[in-house]
Amino acid sequence: MRIKLSANRYGKNAVNLSRIIRHEGYHEFRQVSVSVALTGDFDAAHTLGDNSRILPTDTQKNTVYALAREHFTSSIEAFGLTLSQHFLSRNPPVSQVRIELVEHLWQRLAFDGVPHPHSFTGGGSEKRTTVVTRTAAGPAVSSGLKGLLLLKTTDSAFVGYPKDEFTVLPETSDRILATECEASWNYVTTELDFDSRHQQIRQSLLRTFAGHQSHSVQHTLYAIGEKILQENDVVAEISLIMPNKHHIPFNLEPFGQPNTNEIFVATDAPFGYITGTVTREP
């Protein structure tokens, strides 16, 4: 029996980086978590204990910080492309670099309608994401967001589903639709203004969610993906995760009160988990 090493990679995860970008009269504050993963010819390190081709993960961490001063001045995608090029070009054993960035969003404080030059508040649960992969053939970028809390109080229904002896869920033509959306989309090019494109895609997602006459979470998920692809020819496909954060009508009848779809119990678990990928046909 022959035994051999199969797929493997290594890197540094969760390099937490905060960056002040100082402009005349105001500051930007950026906070990201960067993970680096290298794939390549590292068999000898595993089988022989030969580390001559292993770039230390501590060096990878230091590289993130050292390159941030000059290169982390715009989008997380642009910084990821810089990091991937650095690691691939300087390390011959490496055949693929994967850079994942998660940005924690901060919002500038404003008083009397005037933005404060250097004070911020946390942006809630939403985070901006990107994954940059690079080989000798070139880079690829997949961007997205996660932790985006969305809720609409009407224009959502769920009827016509199969029923058996275990079904107690009543049909409804008017319900709360709530989710914590995660989305990732693949760009067909890296020659983009990533910041403006991210905002355009995010706005399309929000506008579709708000305006869609939903017959299910699946129905709305597809509508969001379809609209984003229609409006963005630089996106090849989009994947969405939309858990159904249930808000269940509370029974007020024991208290002599009707519940006209106004009082609900918000539940954390269990919850419906809905995913889907919308892509272009060749």
UniProtKB/TrEMBL annotation:
A UniProt-annotated Pfam family: Uricase
Highest taxon of the lineage: Bacteria
Residues annotated as catalytic: K12, T57, H246
Record key words, sorted: Oxidoreductase, Purine metabolism
Record-level Gene Ontology MF annotations: urate oxidase activity
Binding site for 5-hydroxyisourate: T57, F158, R175, V217, Q218, N244
Binding site for O2: T57, N244
The protein's Enzyme Commission number: 1.7.3.3
Amino-acid positions noted as binding urate in the UniProt annotation, renumbered to this chain: T57, D58, F158, R175, V217, Q218, N244
GO biological process, one term: purine nucleobase metabolic process
Gene3D superfamilies: Urate Oxidase
Role this protein plays: Catalyzes the oxidation of uric acid to 5-hydroxyisourate, which is further processed to form (S)-allantoin.
Protein name: Uricase
Organism: Hymenobacter montanus
